């Protein structure tokens, strides 16, 4: 929690400083609530959450003093209310073997790193893990995944850069069956520059996975980079349509001023948030907790 609090310090300090500058032993009036709403919107929390906070503070309270602490407490409570329903652990104990997890997301959002961190967690839980270097477009992504494989003891299925991603996914599905591994984590490409191509490739990968196991992929995780703010919202929509996203991992929550976007995404899409990334290291992936996040962001 301390790490999350440090990580979200920039997100929370804009909020807490703003709140302290508005609620200065004055009697509450509409202009103060309007200013507060602006600050909440600037923090990317989204209109619904911003409105519910200002409405709650305003009801029956005009002409009374409200302290910054009280405003922050209301902020934390309302944020937790939005996040609690989406804070759901990734369940890899559903009796499926191999449990196939497809990792999707725009390049640079942290897909490959998250796969490595996840592999490490699963290995620590005693699970056997296989990684598929499905971002065949970038040689660096394939190399990076191999490094994560050797760090975590996971087998890696890879082909040379430029190979067909669907063919690679097919190989990986069969290898995972042959080796009877518990979990197969499949990386994918995320070139959003060419949406039609990306869509076609992801659809093909999913089709091929289903040829081997019609019930797979069992989870489709989307990585979102917290530092990109509103872009993350668009990515949920695009990848939701293309790949049938079942859950989210928000990365780079260490040191961003835009962590509030997670609240807006939760309010709008209601997709489960399984993990958050709080650094580049192997242990910097944490299960998502609504309360911790709410308290960290409210300062
Ligand atoms: P991909 O293109 O989606 O596979 O993204 P990568 O996994 O290659 O990550 C892109 C960059 O973001 C790398 O430099 C990672 O070390 C970094 N990164 C990933 N997750 C986090 C995180 O939670 N916090 C920070 N600070 N950096 C991260």
From TrEMBL:
The protein's enzyme class: hydrolase
Localization (cell): Cell inner membrane; Cell membrane; Cytoplasm
Example GO BP: SRP-dependent cotranslational protein targeting to membrane
Record GO cellular component, one term: cytoplasm
EC number in record: 3.6.5.4
Catalytic reaction equation(s): GTP + H2O = GDP + phosphate + H(+)
Function: Involved in targeting and insertion of nascent membrane proteins into the cytoplasmic membrane. Acts as a receptor for the complex formed by the signal recognition particle (SRP) and the ribosome-nascent chain (RNC). Interaction with SRP-RNC leads to the transfer of the RNC complex to the Sec translocase for insertion into the membrane, the hydrolysis of GTP by both Ffh and FtsY, and the dissociation of the SRP-FtsY complex into the individual components.
Subunit relationships: Part of the signal recognition particle protein translocation system, which is composed of SRP and FtsY. SRP is a ribonucleoprotein composed of Ffh and a 4.5S RNA molecule.
Protein name: Signal recognition particle receptor FtsY
Species: Pannonibacter tanglangensis
Whole-protein residues included: 97 to 395 of 397
